Amino acid sequence: MKIGKHTIVFENTPVIISTGSAVGPKEKGGPLSKYFDTSVEDVYFGEKTFEKAESKFMAEAIDLAIKKAELDIHKIDYMFAGDLLNQCISSGYTARNLGISFFGLYGACSTFAEANILAASFVNAGYAYNSIASASSHFCASERQFRMPLEQGTQLTPTSQWTVTGSGATLIAKADENNKKIYPHISMATPGKVIDLGIKDIANMGAAMMPAAFDTIITHFEDTNRTPDYYDLIITGDLGILGSKLLKEQLKNYGYNIDNNHIDCGVKIFDTNAQDTAMGGSGCGCSASVFCGYIYPMLKEKKINRVLFIATGALMSPVSLGQGESIPGVAHAVVIEN
Q1: Rg (CA), the chain
Q2: Could you give the CA distance from residue 62 to residue 60 in angstroms, rounded to a whole number?
Q3: Phi and psi, residue 274, nearest 5°
Q4: Smallest Cα–Cα separation from 208: which of 120, 59, 320?
Q5: Which CATH fold topology does 14-173 show?
């Protein structure tokens, strides 16, 4: 069912029965280290290339989610996944080895929310009993593709963010009378529009993505007639320190104050002063690993009961930037409740 302009209500309340998370060494050294299922010291994760390592992070997260649910992999109907690399190769190679029907997605850093919306939609409609939603990123692979070779030793600018090395996966299942009481469910989603205010600075993703987050949040509140205090947490994907500050200021101008219940995954995952990550974390794996490792357990243990999760993405490429294009942003919102 659709309400308002863009918000979907999942009437059959698909549930998240498990999650998996796997991260790299810098994330292992951050404030959320103890919450991740797997954390490794080696950015290669035992592989020969950064790209193969990223695929292994996703495979690990998905494997953990399936094992926790005590399901045979053949019980998984569909896999919705994406990453930052050209042609979504991390996700594609992961899917090749799993043998699950695969939808490859690209929403930049918003991909994890997009994957959850689509997986929940299939389960809600009865097209699937169990679906996987996942996303990944890798600092070294992303730097090589989007910015400068690591060997060049390029310094971060003050507004830059550090791409998270890691992955997260949710296993979304059909609700029944038993698991509906045990597991958090995805109750709503507000897919976002592409918003572009003309930002061209590749080292300022927070400013480029914030307008899309703002638009989606405003749309969600207007569609649902809810206010920020309905939610225990309003979580943005990776606006970082600057983007989060701008978002809160803009929402206040529209009468919405999220100061007391907003967190940003990019801010939470690193200690920016101790780890030299400028404005914090970014990348598809940022919101995916933080949600799966840190947020979902709090929902399952009912320490929190209502979450508005908004992942944000910058829809640019090295080609578009080379042609002088600005950076479009998109943000998708998912409501997870007990």
Answers
A1: 18
A2: 6
A3: -75, -30
A4: 320
A5: Peroxisomal Thiolase; Chain A, domain 1 (3.40.47)
Q: How confident is the model over 241-269, as pLDDT tens digits?
A: 999 999 999 999 999 999 999 999 999 99
- Structure pTM? 0.95
> Based on the number of CB atoms within 10 Å of its own CB, is 43 exposed (0-12), middle (13-18) or buried (19 or more)?
middle
pLDDT digits over 8-34, tens only?
999 999 999 999 999 999 999 999 999
Dihedral through CA 84, CA 106, CA 308, CA 306, nearest 10? Answer: -90
> CB-based contacts of 23: which residues, under 8 Å, 6+ apart?
36, 38, 39, 40, 57, 164, 165, 166, 167, 285, 289, 293
- For residue 22, the cross-strand partners are 38, 167
Q: What's the rounded Cα separation, in Å, for the pair 114 and 99?
A: 22
Which residue reads 């990223």 in tokens?
A: 54
Query: What's 184-337's CATH class?
Result: alpha beta
